[in-house]
Amino acid sequence: MQTDIDPRSLIGRKAFDRNGTKIGTIDEVYLDDATGVPEWAAVRTGLFSRDAFVPLEPSELVGDALRVPFERSLIRDAPDFGVGRHLSPEQELQLYHHYGLDVTLPSEFHHPPADPDEPRDFGRLAGD
Fold first, then answer.
1. Cα-based angle 126, 6, 96 (whole degrees, multiple of 5)
2. What is the largest CA-CA distance in the chain?
3. In whole angstroms, what is the distance from residue 101 CA to residue 126 CA?
4. Structure letter (DSSP) for residue 9
5. Which of 5, 54, 60, 84 ranks highest by number of CB atoms within 10 Å?
6. Which helix (H) or strand (E) holds 72?
7. What's the pLDDT score for residue 83?
8. CB 95 within 8 A of CB 53
9. Between the CA of residue 101 and those of 11, 68, 92, 119, what are the distances in Å?
10. Which residues fall in a compositionally biased region of kind Basic and acidic residues (predicted)?
């Protein structure tokens, strides 16, 4: 995903799965504490349902919507940690495992901490 986008501008956008099926609307964006890069979005999956956390990398913006490259069922089954709170490193690791994403290989969006033994801390909300 583009890193030059203001993460607050993602809030309120619609999110779709890999097949183009609507997942819901983005409620919150969570930033990497070390880099400030947007890492996760909490997507409200329905009026009375919960928020599902989705990874922003490898998701992409297509027009005004976020395209998440996973099946809707996998997204809806993601661990629910509630929104408006900081994600702990353990919760963030659970999300990476849920989506089958590799947390050991850095990408342009995933920078390792200065000390490789130090746990990464994610979850600052956009605007915090």
1. 60
2. 42
3. 23
4. G
5. 54
6. helix 72-76
7. 84
8. yes
9. 24, 13, 11, 17
10. 108-128
**pLDDT exceeds 90 at position 1:** no
The pair of three-digit structure tokens given for residue 72, joined into one six-digit string? 């809707």
Residue 93's Cβ-side half-sphere holds a number of Cα atoms within 13 Å equal to 7
DSSP for 73-121, please give it. HHHHTS----SSSPPPHHHHHHHHHHTT--SSS-BTTBPPPSSTTSPP-
What would the two tokens of residue 36 be? 């400030």
Q: Which fold has domain 7-125?
A: Photosynthetic Reaction Center; Chain H, domain 2 (3.90.50)
Any idea where the domains of the chain sit in the sequence? 7-125
Distance CA 44, CA 109 (A): 24
Beta bridge partners of 41: 29, 54
* Cα–Cα distance for residue pair 11/27, rounded to 1 Å: 5
